[in-house]
Fold this protein.
Amino acid sequence: MEEAPKLPKFLSSNSARSPVEKAEVASAEESDEVPGLSEAEFRGIYERHAAEILRYAIRCVGRREIAEEIASEAFLKMHLHRDRILASRAAAWLTAAVKNQATDYWRRQQVERRHLDVAAPETAEPESEQDWSDLLRERALKPEHRVCLTLHYVHGMNRGEISARTGLSDNQVKNCLQYGLKLLRRSIGPKDGAQ
Amino acid sequence: MSATRCPEPDVLLACGEGVLPEALEREAQEHLAECALCRQLIEDLRSPAFAEPTLEELTRMERTVFSAKRKPLTWTIVGAIAAAVLVATLASLWMQQPGSAPKNETIATALKPALLPKQPPEPKLRLPLEPAPLRLPLAAAAVFRGRAAEHPGLDLEALGEALAPYRAGDYADAEDRLRNLAERFPAAVEPHFYLGVSELFAGDPQAATSDLEAARRIGGEALDDEIAWYLAIARERSGSWQDAAKLLEGLCDAEGLRQKQACEALGR
């Protein structure tokens, strides 16, 4: 009796599959569509999903330059494996690839943090967040002002670090901080804008 | 108030996405449940103002993905596609019955869609915002020579004073002074223009759009390109990329100080 051809390892067990592999298997099982992307299809997929995938990567890791690397890597991987990807499942494939890499990133971060915690144990108590919470309810503040003020005064980030998280330029961060403080002063202090 | 130290914003942002290690996710969730400040921060970071990739990021990513190592392959394929399109077009023209072809159909028009430059990516771009250089009206020279009375249209000394904080990068102060000046001299372009730019720096693109529109209506030859450039930034930051693109196209098509930047923003 003829034996069924053996499946590649990643197709043989559902439990050990990564999200990307699961997306591939699911797509192969659920559809009659023939896998494989042409260069033009790849380009089209890139144009349709680049912003969305980068946005998702930013949410997953916070640091925009890391997010950019992860999103680029997902598209490069897709290009590498384009012969076994269904066009209809491309977005799911890319999302799964980003999620995978973000999970790895956080795993590595956790190991690094553990080492850092040992090297520099936390001693200082955080400043009260209540005052800031109340202050930042000021209605005139826009998200840009609130984010810059919180990252600077609560999380102790400098302008460069804020810029790396928000995508704002150094100059914009400076002005958001300046203007945000001015709005806060207006709301709590004398109307003449005294310091 | 939260009893624990606020987790890093990156951790908070990733919370709920299923990518954090279990313990970190649990800690962050517990913290978020009791810290209004962090909940607000996450809400803000997830708002379109921050969640959307910038033009620079998208351009860099495109360059990485379609990088030099794949260029030969890409060009081979592009060449092959172009050749195939050309052959197919010639063949279809040759096979058509005489008189049945549209009168104005030529190889050039048939190929036009394939040869058209790629449209710029539509949404969520962030044009670079740098301070507008100071350009004062010619009448300013008269003021400096002590002949201000000859130019009653605008109080240039007051404009100079209002622009001092602008020059120093204190846009909040500049905004107050320029608004006052714009109200006093509604027909003068400079107060509206520099007020619009200051509002952009202060993170208020809607107000900036309104003042830059006013500056545009008044017009001022020396400032026209600058007004269009900053109006494009204000439009784009207000979520009207299509309007911003129209302004950029105008700048890109005409020779001017902002031509290069506008063309780059459009991906040309």
